[in-house]
Amino acid sequence: MIERGEIHLTALLLLREHLTEDNHEDLLRAASGKTKAQVQELLAARFPRPDAPSLIQRLPEATAPRPEAAAPAPKTTRIEPLSAERYKVQFTATAALKRKIEHLTNLLRHTNPSGDLSVIVERAVDVLLAKLEKQRLGKTERPAPKAPHKNTRAGYVTRAVRREVFARDGEQCTFIDEAGRRCESRTLLELDHGIPRALGGPDDAANLSVKCRAHNALAAERDFGREHIERKKAEKKNPPRQRRYESEVALRGLTAMGFKEPQARRALGIIEERWNGAAPSMETALRQTLSILT
Questions:
Q1: Quick one: DSSP state of residue 171?
Q2: Other CB atoms closer than 10 Å to residue 220's CB: what's the count?
Q3: Strands, E, within the chain: which ranges?
Q4: Which of 54, 80, 84, 150 could form a disulfide with 88 if both were Cys (CB 3.0 to 4.6 A apart)?
């Protein structure tokens, strides 16, 4: 099975404590072609474990790494299935978050006498989820009756339209690749205009679809070209007003060095054209301008 690529070594490591003479064929067949996370879900359903204890535990003080030591791996949140419907969630919290959790625990003692952390976290997540779904997806508990279409300001997608599009597309990117596979991303979702807004495309549900950020950017490059998109990104990082201010500062610096203002302005103009709307650092702009002037 390994040779044929039906199962990987990580899956075998997860299965090793559960394989027996009686179940190994069935279990290996069930794990075939599955990812690590899917194998963990499979084992949690077939061999459920008891719930993890609810606790907050102080971590040992971190020691300063030696200069020659490799950089520590980034901290990640761990979510591990224990049974079909139960999970162990583990992460590192700051002292400030610990104090907030303790305060929430005290405030909820009348409905959560045991101080179970999972109850507190789920209540907090429910509140945040409702807020974000309202902001990002346009969801509401009492949607207003659908009114006849009326004009809205250009570039504005109404909450009702946003809600309709995300519900229609299942809160998943709708990009389809050449093999007919749909993108599985459900994060960093954005609304993509089929006919771009800049080309007169409307802000109605028929012209909108859900795309992940990467595929939305790909659609923008298809419509306007990579050069245009890169220029817009540069303008966002360094808006025209900021560039004008930096250009004036550079101009004052050049005139203080003894260069005449018209000469300095022409050199700065050449540099701006060379960078095509991008944003070089002040040091780079001055260095390149001086190379022209001298």
A1: T
A2: 19
A3: 78-81, 87-90, 189-193, 208-212
A4: 80
